[in-house]
Design a protein that fits this description.
This protein is mainly alpha-helical. The chain contains five helices and no strands.
């Protein structure tokens, strides 16, 4: 996935709809939180087995995919707005995690 290409695509989509003034870090973080909660809602009250099976068929697969996409799209907007390189941030965070949690 080319994150920069997606960020540019999203910026163009938002610009065409005159949404750019609303896409600030505060609003994007709040929207990201709401979308993450909607993803949680897909799994709320399911057993572990039911949760595992949710995306094996429709409509669960599409519902989860839609919410995952919403989370990612808002995160990409937030990264663009804050100037954070998500790929570099992920590489750095994985290195921190590897040092913090070495294999047994």
């Amino acid at each position: 996935m080319d994150l920069l290409a997606w960020q540019n695509r999203l910026a163009g989509f938002a610009q065409d709809r005159q949404w750019l003034p609303y896409l600030n870090p505060k609003n994007l973080t709040m929207a990201l939180s709401v979308e993450a909660a909607e993803l949680v809602e897909c799994y709320q009250w399911l057993s572990a087995d039911e949760a595992q099976a949710l995306t094996a068929s429709e409509p669960g697969r599409t519902q989860v995919a839609d919410e995952m996409a919403d989370v990612l799209l808002y995160l990409l907007h937030l990264a663009r707005e804050t100037g954070i390189d998500l790929e570099a941030a992920c590489v750095a965070k994985m290195a921190k995690n590897a040092a913090k949690y070495p294999p047994p």
